[in-house]
Amino acid sequence: MAVSPGCIKAVRAASGDTLTDAEAKALIERMEARKLAFEADGKLDDINAKMMELARADAEAEKIAAALARKHAALSALRYNERIGHVDTLLKDGVPYQKAILAILEGSTRNVARGRESVGRAKLAFEARWVGNMMGRLQREVPAFEGLMRDKQFLGDIVREMHQINRDGGNPGITGNADARKTAAILADTAERARRDLNKQGAAIGKLDGWAGPQRHSQTKAMDAGQDTWVAETADLLDLEKTFPDLTPDEAREVLGQIWENIVSGRVPDEIGAAKGRKVPANVAKALGKSRVLHFKDPDAWLAYNERYGEGHVVDGIVTYLRRAAMTGAQMKVLGPNPEATMDRLLRHYEGQARRDTKLKPKQRAAVGDALKNGRDPTSNGSIVSAMAEASGLTLVPNHVTAARYMSNFRAVQSMAKLGAAVVSSISDLVSRASAMKYQGKSLTRSYAEQFGDLIHGRGNAEQKELAYMLGEGFDGPLDMMVGPYWSEDAPMGKMHKLQSMFFKLSGLRRWTDSMKVSQARMVSNWMARNSDRAFGALPSG
């Protein structure tokens, strides 16, 4: 649609000249799109009043976007200064430039101050805070939850209760299933906690009315159905007016076609971001980073989609959502709202410093400077680029979905073949873990005694399980057993996942691994608590 210069000028004047020409044009196009959508649906009553209300909402969105942009700028400056102090501390303790930058992303094994402070540590902390606490509450408030997760009716009731809990004027308890209501409340509380934590780091995530949990879309099922069938069946299950408030039904189906392409190509793994979705003012779209969310008509529509085109179940979906959120939150906590920009600034700063560092020989200065420069080039294969890709989750997105799926099967077969008798060889884990505790100042004898005791008791009683979950350990095995039965049979990795899960359960490796992780987590946390009042230089050494 052509927008006249006069209209753009009028909108800019009405905004107090706070909008650019491009932003004013985007606002006009947005209002016209809404008007056409109302007319196409025959919603002509009080159309002018509706348009005025939407225009006021846009104005409010502009204010929010401006405030958020200021918050982002402040957080970015704060995180940059924190990382300068962090790297300077590591350099002072003899850590090389490249290793110091890498330590920001993955930590350092060197015995230096702030060596463990990293994106990786923050991710694990968020996972423990969200997933660990969620599992701990489930263990305490719904003791039978592990067995109930195999009951499809129970899982469906969780979705129905989640919808009521997250809905204005909802009616929690509608299913009459007390355990499902408790479980749904725990899941909803955890998701809300994650939302607030991310917003503190600079995100702008709003609450979704009637949210029943995230969907996990099956590439295989969507691909087998074909685009036209998927679009038609999905459109029947969606609240189209809520999902696509500015689009006509035909435009909404066009966007759904793009979403289908995203699913089958693997470009967007969970909640779908559509390039031609909701049209918002340019600066609002940039600041808020809005993504398209599929709003289903009701919980039964959510469940119907999950059965037809989904993978896993609601608990599995929440855990996946929380783990991805932990990855995002960790980046923002350490590097600010725009992690790549902060990392680029850091690399430029230390590249210049390294090239001027008289403590290095001329050839070393050039080599270090070039290495840091390559760290800013995403096409390079340097360790900094690889670590950034891992921290950002880029390595989780396959370039070729089919090849990635079959290679996953190949690796699964390899792991079963090579780790079939791993329980026997894993006895050496006791030695390496005791050695690690000795490095932290704990005696070998005491470390061995505690490990053997924990190994005998496994994951422990209910209280010990809850403690382990809250420490962020011991829930991988239970989660795997909950999720396994719901992987798609027609997906190659689904069958292999079930086989692999059962194989390692029967071999005893899962019990061994979970027990050892829980044991180490309890030992380390207890030892850290006992020494938490000491300065770094006064800590015991092995």
Please render the helix and strand layout as text.
Layout: H1 5-14, H2 21-40, H3 47-92, H4 97-106, H5 119-141, H6 145-148, H7 152-165, H8 178-200, H9 219-225, H10 227-237, H11 240-243, H12 249-265, H13 282-288, H14 299-309, H15 314-335, H16 339-356, H17 362-374, H18 383-392, H19 401-419, H20 422-425, H21 429-439, H22 444-457, H23 462-470, H24 476-483, H25 492-507, H26 509-530
- Overall mean confidence score, pLDDT: 79
How many extended strands? 0
> What letter string, H or E per element, gives the SSE order?
HHHHHHHHHHHHHHHHHHHHHHHHHH
Identify low-pLDDT runs.
Answer: 268-291, 488-492
The main β sheet shows up as:
none
Share in β-strands: under 5%
Q: Could you tell me how far the N terminus lies from the C terminus, measured between alpha carbons in angstroms?
A: 72 Å
Characterize the overall form.
globular
Helix/strand-derived class?
A: mainly alpha
Helix content: 55-70%
- Count of helical stretches: 26
> How large, in whole angstroms, is the Cα Rg?
26 Å
Task: Note down, in words, how this protein is organized.
α1 packs across α2, α3 packs across α13 and α5 packs antiparallel against α15. The protein is mainly alpha-helical and 542 residues long. It is 69% helix and 0% strand. It is globular and about 80 Å long. Among the domains are: 80 residues, no CATH class; 95 residues, no CATH class; 138 residues, no CATH class. The longest helix is centred in the N-terminal third of the chain and has 46 residues. The protein starts with a helix and ends in a 12-residue tail after the last helix. The protein is built from 26 helices and no strands.
